[in-house]
């Protein structure tokens, strides 16, 4: 049976579970899905706001999902992370992506990858409450940094 015919299992958005247990998925692959999940969360947040002009949405989304922003988010979240989450972050930070950052320095890029890896890990580990909690705090921190 093709993937499209599978029952929606787990807590994923679509009926395509990972091919292996979450702990066996390479960190760069977790970052790949984490990037997409975080992008959807940011877009959903922005659409919840009253200003829906496309240019404004794009500009604000870019400021929240950039490597620089994700690096800041990871530093902010670090004290709140569990040992397991810190281990995932460490693996993501040390993963070799094979690409060079375009708009960030290497350290920011590695921290952004680590953040995305954490998001991907929580998503595939079905720790959605924790995922929502951390992404909510991340967005709040970036939107209202003085609080």
Structure summarized in a few sentences:
With 147 residues, this protein is mostly helical. The chain has helices at residues 27-47, 54-65, 67-77, 83-94, 106-124, 128-143.
Q: How big a fraction of the residues is strand?
A: under 5%
In quaternary terms, these chains amount to: single chain
CATH class: Mainly Alpha
Note the main sheet.
none
- Helix and strand composition category: mainly alpha
Q: State the share of residues found in helices, binned by percent.
A: 55-70%
Give the overall pLDDT as a whole number: 90
Query: What is the annotated CATH architecture?
Result: Orthogonal Bundle
CA-to-CA gap between the ends?
Answer: 51 Å
Tally of alpha and pi helices:
6
Q: What is the third-level CATH name, the topology?
A: Ribonuclease iii, N-terminal Endonuclease Domain, Chain A
Order of helices and strands: HHHHHH
Overall morphology: globular
What is the count of distinct domains? 1
CATH-defined superfamily: Ribonuclease III domain
Low-pLDDT sequence parts: 1-8
Tell me the number of strands.
Answer: 0
Q: How large is the radius of gyration? A: 16 Å
């Amino acid at each position: 049976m093709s993937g499209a015919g599978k029952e929606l299992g787990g807590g994923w958005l679509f009926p395509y579970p990972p091919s292996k247990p979450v702990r066996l998925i390479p960190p760069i692959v977790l970052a790949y899905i984490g990037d997409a999940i975080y992008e959807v969360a940011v877009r959903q947040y922005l659409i919840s706001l009253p200003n829906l002009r496309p240019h404004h949405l794009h500009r604000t989304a870019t400021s929240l999902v950039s490597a620089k922003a994700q690096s800041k988010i990871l530093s902010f979240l670090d004290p709140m992370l569990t040992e397991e989450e810190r281990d995932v972050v460490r693996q993501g930070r040390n993963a070799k992506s094979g690409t060079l950052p375009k708009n960030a320095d290497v350290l920011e890029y590695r921290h952004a990858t680590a953040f995305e890896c954490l998001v991907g890990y929580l998503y595939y580990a079905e720790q959605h409450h924790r995922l929502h909690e951390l992404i909510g705090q991340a967005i709040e921190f970036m939107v209202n940094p003085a609080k």
